[in-house]
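Structural prep section.
Before we set up the soaks we want a predicted structure of the protein with F0G in place, mainly to decide which crystallisation condition to try first. Input record follows.
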Amino acid sequence: MSEGSRRRSWAEPFKIKVVEPVRMTTHQERREALDEAAWNTFLLKSRDVYIDLLTDSGTSAMSDHQWAGMMVGDEAYAGSENFYHLERAIQETYGYPYMVPTHQGRAAEHIISQILISDGDIIPGNMYFTTTKLHQELAGGTFVDVIVDEAHDPESEHPFKGNVDLNKLEALVDEYGVDRIPFISLATTVNMAGGQPVSLENIKELHAFCSSHGIPIYLDKTRVAENAYFIKEREPGYSDTSVQEIVQEICSYTEGAWMSAKKDALVNIGGYLVLRDEEVFEQARNMVVVYEGLHTYGGLAGRDMEAMARGMVESVDEEHIKARVGQVIYLGNKIASEGVPIVKPVGGHAVFLNAKAFLPHLDQEEYPAQRLAAEIYLEGGVRSMERGIVSAGRDEKTGENLRPNLELVRLTLPRRVYTQAHMDVTAETVWEVWDRRDSIKGLEMVYEPKYLRFFQACFKPIE
Ligand code: F0G
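Run finished without errors. Recording the tokens verbatim:
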């Protein structure tokens, strides 16, 4: 673009080769579908959804290069060619020497939690993620949130709301001692905070603190490329550094990481654990054969590993990541332009509506975000998900509902799937619900499963 050029907008760095038709539905059909799904968007059938913003997990579009890779899947039980390609791609893209493939992120969380955590341990982290925290608890640990206070405030415009508050971490170390803290659970593009990034300055300070106390940092790098993009855009000194180099630098401060490759890495299934410590690697490589499959496929087909190896390279492409995050920001700004309360700044993978401010007349125990997600579906066939009190679950010890400050609805964008026109329709759908917000009532929970209740809980509208 030349100096003084009129061009300000980004456009997708691809063109569309294959399309998948979606079904339009009537208000009546959606009401029936919602009743059948017990007012939980996770229980809707995909065929009843017009624009599916439930999650960016496994829902992205693969490139022609990735699809071509599916054809060279080496489906040998042991020593698949694609495993070695994946291992090399990980070493080159992220810099970790050892890798154990798993079928998706939570399987890697299970393995690393079982290896590192003992009964009574404390796991500090920059805000919980549902599956991560559960695996830490199932291994006998207790997750403690040490994210900066700004992360819990939807209105705060702090550019790095994913940062760790080192004072909170230090207080925890003083209280419990380093022996009870096996690692710090650091996440990039903090999902539950609204897709908020961590700065490299904060990661470096954290690394200095952890090194001096002998506490390793393990990273949930599920959306590390999006975080790196925000660093490039917002952190002084990084505007000329490539996203790939920033990703490498983030990883360099960590002892290991787990990944749900279904996000950044542009695949429909896949994950892994990456490690620097040979002993931990040996244990993980042994455990994976019990729960997933041999250590050279970990629950995946050879073709899945090939698509993952190719996808992770595409994930750090400058034009790709700019358009990916650009689309999320476009949707966020558009929705907010009519006064709808959203989490600010707009995150990397999703726009989060502030359901507490959207439906201030509802008590949190009437599940405002759950109801709002249902209403958005009812209005326009757009599927989103609750990220509030239902997702937070109950206190392990007291059995009481946890009442997170953030009561949110997440409109999550699959990568390379929807067009700008879909974004416009989504914003208009949200506006229509906004216009009738005063008449929206809450929900009652009528069925609650024990683990990760948000996936399968059932509700009834309060009339
Ligand atoms: N960590 C983060 C930050 C995640 O967002 C997820 C999944 C996982 C770990 C677990 O990975 O699903 O492959 O087992 N998040 C999805 C979501 C489900 O919709 O945000 P998984």
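Observations: The pocket of F0G is lined by residues 55, 57, 104-106, 129, 131-132, 187, 191, 220, 222, 260, 262, 271 (CB under 6 Å).
Flagged for discussion at group meeting.
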